[in-house]
């Protein structure tokens, strides 16, 4: 016999049954009954953010760094609309989060009630699925189903909109194990296609693995099998921004990230390969560059749990719909059973070594100014042996972080990839730190992005979260400025940061520590001071203002036409490429 | 790259939609989508089409199984084979969608549409309208001394043809239901 309880109590009970230990949220009129229940228990820790967008990004940070779903609670109306950016961010990057929103009581829906918004209508295109609950008896099942949908198949954000009268009313609770749903996406790859893939690997002379966030989402087993697979086949491997850490950066066959700001050797290997195996990536335009010139000579295998990712942008010769870990396990089993060997690809590896020797990340260092690349190299050197998690904001600093920081394990790199959300990194670092209280959590930021959600300093200080905000401050919207240099004849329209705060004083105003560093000679000591401080730190690192992020594939160009080093960028983007973002 | 004998990409200068491996011939497909009959499910389907820029030529929806909470949405759409495949894959991942069938691809199917036509006229034109309606097996469901309302059932092409004939005879208003379709045969 299921227990009778109020809708508000069901929310808390369902969260407990789902193993939730932390929720991020902000109270308001339409969620007061839920907050009253939260107040009367100690199993679920509620983190009060300073803005609902922060709650959703924090839930994302929690989810991305643990593989568990993140949970946020927001009120109706503005609470829900403030959650939209985070939901869209999670949808683009396939991050499992559950947002619970309050709603005007059912009998007032449609009357333009105070703080009423059509939340399921607004969030329909930015969630994997959402529900408006009009009956308390259906609430518990829906909450369990929400977790199931968020975590199954291709993960994603879901939202459950609960009117206030449904929270007050009493209904029957449904246990997690009794949850009813028809949603069960396939996870096991097609056997014939897997045989076909193994044959392709046996005969390939220039193979390359292109991995993405799907490997991370599939879980630690997928990363383990991936490493085994690379060791077995000796294949060079590159990854998207989202997939960093699935294969260790110190690994022998690691090529580095590919794509628009990816490494020369990675992009050239993609362009020159005869067999490309895409594992859990989606041929984003940041990866492919010009699609008709993308990896023109290769047979393309695409393994993805979402059938709609396959053949969306690039035609797959060997399409396999399935969970990465399950497919990889099956590929390895067939490979071993057949006693497969790879064809000789030593010439290919030699060629890759020559591309690597170009040293595409080189930059001109300075004795007087901190180069952003140098700052990240020093951050890497001083933190890589620690138990470290990195979040980022969006822009040049994000690309440099992807280039200069190395990730040995999955779930250690949490960045806004698909949506490119400035303001994501700081709240995400709060979520990561909540999940990993004893680890080192650093948000690599630009000053402009960081300001977008700086209110979360209050959260960091209140909960004593020692998040390190490593701001590469160039007093510019660096990536915007770079594109204006490339495309608009250096007319820097609105791309500088005027009237910036004194970040040290700002930190102190919040009760945190601020560190200013502008001399390369002081950088190591300053970073050590940041690491040694037990509490949140804003690190204001004044860097070169007009540094460009290279290498770069200009818009509309193929992989083998990269710009490397400090090259002339004038006319690098042709008219056809200028319309692309 | 010469040493690796790799063909360079095509030389076109536009970066969009250069997908030489996909056919660019537009096809017309009829899709049957079986969905959970719950609030918002039609909005999800329509939102998918508008959000991703797909075409809808016709769309019909009605509950087909009250106890099982199932509705059937019949969508007629056009697109290249790649776009049609995307539409089906995208529909398939909507959570309350149970099944997606491409009736155009899965063998022969029967398509029917119902339409009501109001035709106003007197004298010869009125007689001619009634005669043509008879040929098309349209029935008169309302009449006054100077107007008819015809009900006609058939393929969209048949209804188009009837409309073309009625236009010079005083056609004033048309209501069409959109296509309902089922696969032929026992399966």
TrEMBL record, chain A:
Residues 394-541 form the Thiamine pyrophosphate enzyme TPP-binding domain. It is an enzyme of class 2 (transferase). GO terms for molecular function: acetolactate synthase activity; flavin adenine dinucleotide binding; magnesium ion binding; thiamine pyrophosphate binding. Its cofactor is Mg(2+); thiamine diphosphate. InterPro entries: Acetolactate_synth_lsu (IPR012846), AHAS_TPP (IPR039368), DHS-like_NAD/FAD-binding_dom (IPR029035), THDP-binding (IPR029061), Thiamin_PyroP_enz_cen_dom (IPR012000), Thiamin_PyroP_enz_TPP-bd_dom (IPR012001), TPP_enz (IPR045229), TPP_enzyme_TPP-bd (IPR011766). It catalyses: 2 pyruvate + H(+) = (2S)-2-acetolactate + CO2. Residues 5-120 form the Thiamine pyrophosphate enzyme N-terminal TPP-binding domain. Binds 1 Mg(2+) ion per subunit. Pathway: Amino-acid biosynthesis; L-isoleucine biosynthesis; L-isoleucine from 2-oxobutanoate: step 1/4; Amino-acid biosynthesis; L-valine biosynthesis; L-valine from pyruvate: step 1/4. It holds the Pfam family TPP_enzyme_N. Belongs to the TPP enzyme family. This is Acetolactate synthase. The lineage of its organism: Bacteria, Pseudomonadati, Pseudomonadota, Alphaproteobacteria, Rhodobacterales.
Automatic annotation (TrEMBL), chain B:
Catalyzes the conversion of 2 pyruvate molecules into acetolactate in the first common step of the biosynthetic pathway of the branched-amino acids such as leucine, isoleucine, and valine. NCBIfam families: acolac_sm, PRK11895.1. It comes from Mesobaculum littorinae. It catalyses: 2 pyruvate + H(+) = (2S)-2-acetolactate + CO2. GO terms for cellular component: cytosol. Keywords: Amino-acid biosynthesis, Branched-chain amino acid biosynthesis, Transferase. This is Acetolactate synthase small subunit. The lineage of its organism: Bacteria, Pseudomonadati, Pseudomonadota, Alphaproteobacteria, Rhodobacterales. GO terms for biological process: isoleucine biosynthetic process; L-valine biosynthetic process.
């Amino acid at each position: 016999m299921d227990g009778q309880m109020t809708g508000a109590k069901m929310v808390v009970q369902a969260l407990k049954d789902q193993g939730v230990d932390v929720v991020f949220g902000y109270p308001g009129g339409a969620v007061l009954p839920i907050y009253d229940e939260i107040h009367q228990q100690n199993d679920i820790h509620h983190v009060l953010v300073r803005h609902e967008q922060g709650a959703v990004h924090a839930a994302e940070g929690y989810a991305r760094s643990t593989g568990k779903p993140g949970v946020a609670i927001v009120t109706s109306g503005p609470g829900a609309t403030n959650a939209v950016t985070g939901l869209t961010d999670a949808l683009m990057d396939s991050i499992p989060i559950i947002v619970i929103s309050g709603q005007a009581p059912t009998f007032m829906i449609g009357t333009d009630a105070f703080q009423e918004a059509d939340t399921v209508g607004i969030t329909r295109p930015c969630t994997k699925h959402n529900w408006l609950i009009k009956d308390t008896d259906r609430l518990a099942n829906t909450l369990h189903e929400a977790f199931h949908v968020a975590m199954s198949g291709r993960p994603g954000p879901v939202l459950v909109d609960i009117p206030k009268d449904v929270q007050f009313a009493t209904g029957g609770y449904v246990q997690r194990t009794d949850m009813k749903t028809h949603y069960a996406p396939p996870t096991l790859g097609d056997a014939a296609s897997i045989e076909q893939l193994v044959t392709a690997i046996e005969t390939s002379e220039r193979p390359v693995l292109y991995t993405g966030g799907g490997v991370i989402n599939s879980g630690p087993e997928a990363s383990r099998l991936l490493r085994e697979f690379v060791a077995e086949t000796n294949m060079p491997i590159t990854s998207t921004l989202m997939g960093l850490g699935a294969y260790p950066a110190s690994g022998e066959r690691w090529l580095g990230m590919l794509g628009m700001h990816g490494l020369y050797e990675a992009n050239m290997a993609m362009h020159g390969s005869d067999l490309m195996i895409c594992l859990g990536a989606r041929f984003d335009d940041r990866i492919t560059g010009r699609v008709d010139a993308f990896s023109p000579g290769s047979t393309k295998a695409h393994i993805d749990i979402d059938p709609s990712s396959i053949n969306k942008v690039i035609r797959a010769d060997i399409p396999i719909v399935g969970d990465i870990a399950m497919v990889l396990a099956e590929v390895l089993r067939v490979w071993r059973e057949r006693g497969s060997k790879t064809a000789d690809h030593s010439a290919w590896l030699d060629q890759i070594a020559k591309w690597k020797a170009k040293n595409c990340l080189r930059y001109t260092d300075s004795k007087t100014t901190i180069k952003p690349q140098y700052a990240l190299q020093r951050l890497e050197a001083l933190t890589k042996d620690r138990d470290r998690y990195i979040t980022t904001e969006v822009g040049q600093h994000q690309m440099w972080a992807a280039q200069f920081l190395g990730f040995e394990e999955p779930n250690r790199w949490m960045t806004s990839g698909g949506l490119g959300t400035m303001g994501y990194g700081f709240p995400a670092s709060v979520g990561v730190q909540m999940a990993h209280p004893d680890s080192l959590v650093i948000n690599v930021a630009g000053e402009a992005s960081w300001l977008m959600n700086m209110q979360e300093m209050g959260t960091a200080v209140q909960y004593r979260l020692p998040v390190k905000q490593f701001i590469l401050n160039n007093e510019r919207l660096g990536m915007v400025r770079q594109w204006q240099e490339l495309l608009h004849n250096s007319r820097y329209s609105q791309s500088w940061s005027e009237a910036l705060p004194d970040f040290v004083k700002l930190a102190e105003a919040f009760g945190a520590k601020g560190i200013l560093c502008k001399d390369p000679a002081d950088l190591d000591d300053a970073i050590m001071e940041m690491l040694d401080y037990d509490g949140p730190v804003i690190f204001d690192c004044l860097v070169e203002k007009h540094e460009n992020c290279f290498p770069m594939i200009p818009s509309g160009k193929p992989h083998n036409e990269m710009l490397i080093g400090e090259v002339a960028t004038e006319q690098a983007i042709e008219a056809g490429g200028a319309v692309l973002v | 790259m010469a040493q690796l004998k790799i063909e360079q990409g095509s030389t076109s200068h536009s970066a969009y939609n250069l997908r030489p491996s996909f056919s660019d011939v537009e096809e017309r497909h009829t899709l049957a989508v079986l969905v959970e009959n719950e609030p918002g499910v039609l909005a999800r389907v329509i939102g998918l089409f508008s959000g991703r820029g797909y075409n809808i030529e016709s769309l019909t929806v009605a509950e087909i199984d009250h106890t099982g909470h199932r509705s059937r949405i019949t969508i007629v759409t056009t697109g290249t084979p790649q776009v049609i495949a995307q539409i089906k894959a995208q529909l398939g991942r909507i959570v309350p969608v149970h099944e997606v069938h491409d009736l155009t691809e899965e063998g022969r199917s029967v398509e029917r549409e119902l339409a009501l036509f109001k035709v106003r006229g007197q004298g010869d034109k009125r007689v001619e309208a009634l005669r043509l309606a008879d040929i098309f097996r349209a029935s008169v469901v309302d009449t006054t001394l100077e107007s008819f309302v015809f009900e006609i059932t058939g393929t969209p092409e048949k209804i188009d043809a009837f409309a073309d004939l009625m236009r010079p005879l005083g056609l004033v208003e048309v209501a069409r239901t959109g296509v309902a379709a089922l696969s032929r045969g026992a399966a």
